[in-house]
Amino acid sequence: MKKFFTLYAAVVSLLVANTSSAQINENFDNGFAVLEANCWEFPSMQFASAPAAYVINGNGSPYSEPPVNSSSVRIMRTPFIYIYYSIDISFVYKLSDNLNGQSSRYVTLELVNPSGAVVQTLTNFNVPGNATSAAVFNQTFAVNVPGPY
Predict the structure, then answer these.
(1) How far is the C-alpha of 90 from the C-alpha of 100, rounded, in Å?
(2) Euclidean distance between CA atoms 120 and 117, whole angstroms
(3) 13 pLDDT exceeds 60?
(4) Per-residue pLDDT tens for 92-141?
(5) Boundaries of every domain in the chain
(6) How far apart are CA 41 and CA 20, in angstroms?
(7) DSSP 113-141
(8) How many C-beta atoms surround the C-beta of residue 83 within 10 A?
(9) pLDDT band at 76, cuts 50/70/90?
(10) What is the per-residue pLDDT across 32-41, written as a single tens digit (0 to 9) for each?
(11) Is 47 exposed, middle or buried, given 0-12, 13-18 or 19+ CB atoms closer than 10 A?
């Protein structure tokens, strides 16, 4: 009994002493299959190993074709992680060509719970129409309601 309590106390101490954190760091060089097997989702997205205009780093990147109407949406979902009080998000993005006329593109980052409901919109930013060079997005967000997202 004493050994069991010591083991239990050691495990609890490790869990309490270390703040839980998760890191997802992908370069997409090996396509979507491995990521999809690990619960990533890429509805309406394609994978580019070429042409070079679509690739940002290495030899592959996710990309989408231009929208067919003004309400077209492209979605990428990471695996669920438990987020406590803040989250750091960074990624690199670019357009393959300049946007014409009134065309616009924007990125929305949301925390979505396991039921599929948006709990918090972290940001919504317009991609500049001439963003044909790789641009870095890097920001820390406060999380209003800790939980699995």
Answers:
(1) 27
(2) 9
(3) no
(4) 887 777 777 777 788 889 999 999 899 999 999 888 777 778 888 999 99
(5) 25-79, 80-149
(6) 24
(7) -TTS-EEEEEEEEEEPTT--S-EEEEEEE
(8) 20
(9) confident
(10) 787 788 788 8
(11) middle
